[in-house]
Design brief:
This protein is an alpha/beta fold and 151 residues long. It contains five helices and five strands, in the order H-E-H-E-H-H-E-E-E-H. The protein starts with a helix and ends with a helix.
Length: 151
């Protein structure tokens, strides 16, 4: 009997360890709403091809609220025990923040994977390309996201 219980516990741990990470995408920077949508769509498209992650699209109000929550979490005013609750309320465990800067004829992008349980930045990837059109935004966002979520 004890052996059966232990085997069930190991199986449960294996299943939960294999569960995909739930992420939301937040794009910031002084860019147009259409460019923001292009970047967000490229990131979500790249994530959808990875079995380790599941991406949740969130509307602008949700993302504004999430920004306030993350800022509040990182301020040090939130006890660690409550940070997990904030992530649960938002329905995600992680957030990918993409910051886009377009200057002259160059596009610079920075991506961060943030754990909402701890508020810790797990990984940061940056890149830049010449150009500022749709194809540059899509290619840069796709490439950086691939590098961000790869092991």
């Amino acid at each position: 009997m004890m052996l059966a219980v232990m085997a069930a516990m190991v199986c449960a741990q294996t299943v939960s360890a294999a569960s995909p990470k739930k992420v939301a995408v937040y794009v910031e920077g002084k860019i147009s709403e259409s460019d923001r949508t292009i970047v967000s769509s490229a990131v979500m498209g790249r994530i959808s091809g990875n079995k380790d992650y599941v991406c949740f699209e969130r509307n602008r109000d949700f993302l504004n609220g999430m920004t306030k929550e993350v800022d509040w979490q990182l301020s040090g005013e939130v006890p660690v025990s409550e940070i997990r609750e904030v992530g649960t309320r938002m329905g995600v465990d992680y957030v990918i923040v993409v910051d886009v800067v377009i200057k002259n004829d160059k596009t610079f992008m920075s991506t961060e994977l943030i754990d909402l349980v701890s508020g810790k930045v797990l990984k940061t990837i940056t890149g830049e390309r010449v150009g500022k059109d749709t194809s540059v935004l899509k290619a840069l966002a796709t490439n950086l996201t691939y590098r961000l979520i790869s092991k």
